[in-house]
Amino acid sequence: QITLKESGPTLVKPTQTLTVTCTFSGFSLTTNGAAVGWIRQPPGRALEWLALIYWDDDKRYSPSLKTRLTITKDTSRNQVVLSVTNMDPVDTATYYCVHSGGYGQGGLFDFWGQGTRVTVSS
Amino acid sequence: DIVMTQTPDSLTVSLGERATINCKSSQSILYSANTKNFLAWYQQKPGQPPKLLFYWASIRASGVPDRFSGSGSGTHFALTISSLQAEDVAVYYCQQYYTTPYTFGQGTKLEIK
What we know:
The structure holds two protein chains of two kinds. Chain A is mainly beta. Chain A has no helices and eleven strands.
């Protein structure tokens, strides 16, 4: 059974860097085809894909946020970390960790964490 | 970027009636080499993360009731609930995974009349 859980600060100040961690179980990020990504959802708004990291360390980023995002993995700890620099109030959102590749296709998100709510405010 | 547009934004349907949500992509998401449409549907109930309903436009994910169906090809897609149940109240999103950036529709809120 695949599970993912996000952790990180609930409140960050403008210009700070947000670091959120996804701890997962039920699969290995060393398995061919596996990937973990991040998607966010501002309050009352739609979903926005941010980043994806594959088993072979290939990384994909949203072009609109690419300069501010870094995604890394620690396969020994079953964790994926997303950093977002220069946070702004518009970055206030629930950040979801997602599993991808379960149907042999990256970008298809078959398991989701419960999300971690992040507010950007001074 | 591929823009995904859903219609309507909200929908009110009586219990037991049919509900249809449409999704249009700004370019074709049909990959000719394998004739697959790179389109997924998700259901998000209040206070919960989204749940995958369909992939390849019409393949039900595990555990999805058969009153749900997905259809369409190329740029036009639909999610249909044949007989609305109370537990189907949710926001529904389509998403293309044809190319990065992966993009979602704006969501359709489904309510009971």
